[in-house]
Amino acid sequence: MAGPAGFDREKFLLWAVAGIFIAQFSLYAAGLGVCFHLGQQKLQRAACASYPETLQRTFETALGTALALLGGSSLAAGRRKDPDG
Questions:
Q1: C-alpha distances in angstroms, 83 versus 10, 78, 80?
Q2: Quick one: which of 31, 29, 17, 9 has its CA closest to 75?
Q3: Of the candidates 54, 73, 59, which has an alpha carbon nearest to the alpha carbon of residue 15?
Q4: Mapping DSSP to helix (H, G, I), strand (E, B) and coil, where does residue 5 land?
Q5: How many CA atoms lie within 13 A of 13 on its CB side?
Q6: Cβ–Cβ < 8 Å for 69, 10
Q7: pTM score, whole prediction
Q8: Consecutive 10-residue runs of the chain (85 residues): their mean pLDDT?
Q9: Interatomic CA distance for residues 16 and 4, integer angstroms
């Protein structure tokens, strides 16, 4: 952990990942709203048909990236604290 004036990489990564998830959720919620609106007007588009698969693939990719960043960060922190290294 960093001191009071230092840079805490783990905390920064957690906040960055949280921001990314919030931004993605907001964009996809807006897109889902548009799909529902088009569905009510009987203007169903092909993009709305594949929306659930796209949403799932995007969140899986984002989650995998976040876990890789956090795992790599914890490995690097563990190496720095190793007294034998």
A1: 21, 10, 8
A2: 9
A3: 73
A4: coil
A5: 14
A6: no
A7: 0.55
A8: 67 82 86 81 70 83 81 68 56
A9: 20
